[in-house]
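On clarity, I found the account of how folds are encoded harder to follow than it need be. What matters is that the chain and its backbone geometry are given together, residue for residue. For the editor and my fellow referees, an illustration may be useful. For illustration, here is how one protein appears when written out as sequence plus structure tokens:

___
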Amino acid sequence: MFAVINRLEQLVETLGGLARGCVLVLVLLVSANVLIRYGFSVSPVALQELEWFLISPIAMLGIAYVLKHRADVRVDFIYEKFQPRTRAAVDLFSALATCLIGLFLAWVCWRYMMQSYQISEGSPDPGGLPHRYLVKAFLPLGFALFGLQGIADTLRALRGLLAPQPMPEEALP
């Protein structure tokens, strides 16, 4: 079970690193676009659209990465008062929901992306970027990664529920 969790989270970590790299490239690209626009009075459509091409992996690969690092929004003031087994049960329920939602959305988005691929969707603007399906490909990939992180969290919660619990201190002689 540990090996499966580690492999899934290693994948999330690696693709999260790709998302972080895209943030840096996006910042540099926006800066270059501003300099080109105001310095040379030129506004290349392809460079503007490339910004949107970079936002897709940042958002979609970042979802699972944020979940893995527990940087998501949680209501912890109630959760922290629960016993370890109750926490594990809550974690199991939320992980299963994450898994099901992520994998369902990946399945829905796959058809959306494939439709874009089949019609060779590109930019409607002159000078824009072709292959818009590449941007849309991050939708099923990101949601599938989110679902896989849900599987890792499910396995971790199951391990917490199935592990023998130590006796409370008040029960010891």
